[in-house]
Every structure is written in C-alpha cells, then in structure tokens.
Amino acid sequence: MSEAGKKWLRVAHTREIPRREGREVEIAGRKIAIFHLPEGFFAVASECPHRGGPLADGLVSGTAIVCPLHGRKFDLVTGQMLAEPSTCVKTFPVRVADGTVSVQLPLGTSDEEKPNQACEHRDRPLRWVQRKPSPPLRDAAGR
Fold first, then answer.
1. What domain range is 91 assigned to?
2. Which of 38, 39, 43, 136 is most buried as measured by Cβ atoms within 10 A of its Cβ?
3. Please, are residues 112 and 29 in contact by the beta-carbon 8 Å criterion?
4. Distance (Å, whole) CA 74 – CA 44
5. Number of domains in the chain
C-alpha cells in the first residue's frame, strides 16, 4: 500500500509509556499495543493470535513480548512468533516527534487485519470437538 493510503495518528506522549512496558490504545477502531523499549517505540496488534491474550500486559524481553496467557513470544520488530515464524502479530510503523508517539495506519476502518507479508499463515482459532462415546468392547463370543 502506498503512503497515500496510510495516515499517521498521534496516540500518546512518550512520558505516558514507561520504558520496558506496553500500553493498549484504541485508534481508528483498532486495539494496538505500544511498547517503549531502549531501542525505541514499537506497535503491534493488541491481541495475541493464539487465544486473544492482551499483549500490552505481557512481559518485555529484549525486543520481544511474551503473551501473559500462554507464554507465546513475539518479536516486536517483525511480528513473528519466535518458536513458530509462520505465526505472527500485525506490526505498525511508529514515529516519535516532539515527545509524541504516532502510529501509521491504513486509511479506512476495516476490521480485518492483513498479516505482515513475512507471516502469511496465522494460527486458526482453537476448536473443541467432543467425541461420541465409543461402543463397549465385545469379546470373540459377542458378549
């Protein structure tokens, strides 16, 4: 998508997000987790693709975030899950100017997030299947 199809939106002041922590913000109908690391600010979709865990509440480890629900670890630069690179979380460009953090989003409020090109395959939602009870086993005599 070209720069013309995107818009920079101000989301927070740098002082509102402590270093090595994340905060969830809602902008343009999307929930986004913003992280302040020594390497800079990073933004990803707020929900873990595994089970919808709140990534903004996760533990920061280097430039990765650990989902607080099930321990999945995602690189904040690429969005890729470290144990399974084909699974990812959507990343967004971030810039800081005059103490204000801005995130670049596509124009429009489409609810459907497209994954990063490097991560085309997302985890599917977990589906519980209840099996039918097996008939009782019978011996050779049919009992």
1. 3-106
2. 43
3. no
4. 10
5. 1
Q: Which amino acid would we find at residue 93?
A: P
Predicted pLDDT of residue 113: 46
CA-to-CA distance for 32 and 25, rounded, in angstroms? 5
Copy the structure tokens of residue 83: 């144990």
Pair of tokens at residue 9? 């939106």
- The three-point CA angle 43-46-47 to 5° equals 140
Cut 0.90: pTM above it: no
Which among 13, 12, 35, 17 is positioned nearest to 92, based on CA atoms?
35
Average pLDDT over residues 11-40: 91
Any idea what the CATH number is for the domain that residue 81 is in? 2.102.10.10
Question: 27: which 2 tokens?
Answer: 């902008």
How far is it, in rounded angstroms, from Cα 96 to Cα 86?
A: 30
Backbone angles phi, psi at 57, to 5 degrees: -90, 0
Query: Would you say residue 110 has pLDDT above 70?
Result: no
